[in-house]
Write a structure and sequence with these properties.
50% of the residues lie in helices and 31% in strands. The protein is of the alpha+beta class. It folds into two domains: 1-90, no CATH class; 92-160. The mean pLDDT is 81.
Length: 160
Amino acid sequence: MFLLIGWGKQTTKNHGPVFRNHCDRCNNEELWQLYTRRTWFTLFFIPIIPYSTEHLVVCPVCSHAAIITSAKFDELKEVADCNMDLINKKIGEDEHKNKISQLMKEKVSSAYKANDSQRFSGKTETQINYLRQMEELRRAKEEAARVDKDIIEDNSKDNE
């Protein structure tokens, strides 16, 4: 009996665009893509068991990649899913803005929990709540403006 086993077979999955970034390698500013790369143990050239998983953000122009943590991947995966829903026209632009705003609120609120004691020492509860609301509003506006700009630029490139 003859068994043919191997390892090192890699598969990648593109989860979609996540953010606009300047690539130091190719000097382009594009929407970077979120990828998962798995390395497999194979039996008769068929991937059987994944033994390594990496999460990456990749420049779509030159394929330069940066490895990210699983926690960061989980955050960006939600953004990528939302962006893919917009691209595939499963949701409208208004719903996309609302989802991105909600994701940003969740992200901001988790960041607050980690830094509250340092950032708000000596302030009353009312002052703390006001500062949080203003910062959430500012971040949501910035993210919505950035996403709108990215989508408009991508659509104009597609139409050319």
